[in-house]
Design brief:
With 182 residues, this protein is of the alpha+beta class. The protein contains 5 helices and 10 strands.
């Protein structure tokens, strides 16, 4: 699998358990699609999994959040789940074009920041950020922006998303912020 629409992180050595957990969460999700599938692949980078699902990755992340709120013990191995909107080759020009195509989500008065996570790539983080910032005509705000242009590079492939902070699932944060039971 080269393409992915969901990036998962787990503990070092927990990759297989996290992959099984992700598959189980999808099976238990009411998708309305009887053929809903998720393929999860280890990457060679400790704690990193790539997933390709037939279900919208933002819906999967929302489902994980709901499960963590209602039954926190069901998510034990997945630490973070990051939805990916667009896949491309890991080249500066391809990534910039993909980011530009997703930038329409950012409102005229909204702020954004660019975050780049590189694994197994020699691309320049600085060049990527400068290239993306040059094609998005919105105000940059590094602390608490309205939107994040997230670039996840894994070797020769890149996943790009324009999302809000809450679109990224963190099991630790979800469990910590969970209302206390009486």
């Amino acid at each position: 699998m080269k393409d992915f629409n969901l990036l998962l992180t787990t503990y070092r050595g927990g990759e297989r358990r996290a992959a099984s957990e992700a598959a189980r969460l999808l099976r238990n999700m009411r998708t309305g699609d009887e053929d809903a599938r998720i393929e999860v692949e280890t990457t060679g980078f400790p704690g990193l999994l790539l997933a390709m699902s037939t279900v919208d990755p933002f819906r999967l992340v929302g489902h994980m959040r709901n499960v963590a709120e209602e039954e926190p013990w069901r998510i034990r191995y997945i630490l973070r789940a990051i939805p990916v909107e667009k896949m491309t080759d890991a080249s500066t020009s391809s990534i910039v074009l993909a980011a530009r195509s997703l930038a329409s989500k950012i409102g005229a008065n909204d702020t954004y920041r660019v975050s780049v996570e590189k694994r197994g790539s020699a691309l320049s983080r600085r060049e990527l950020i400068a290239g993306i910032a040059a094609v998005i005509d919105r105000k940059v705000k590094l602390e608490e922006p309205d939107w994040i242009v997230l670039v996840e590079i894994v070797e020769d492939r890149a996943g790009i998303s324009v999302l809000r902070e809450e679109d990224v699932f963190s099991s630790i944060r979800a469990k910590r912020d969970r209302p206390a039971e009486i």
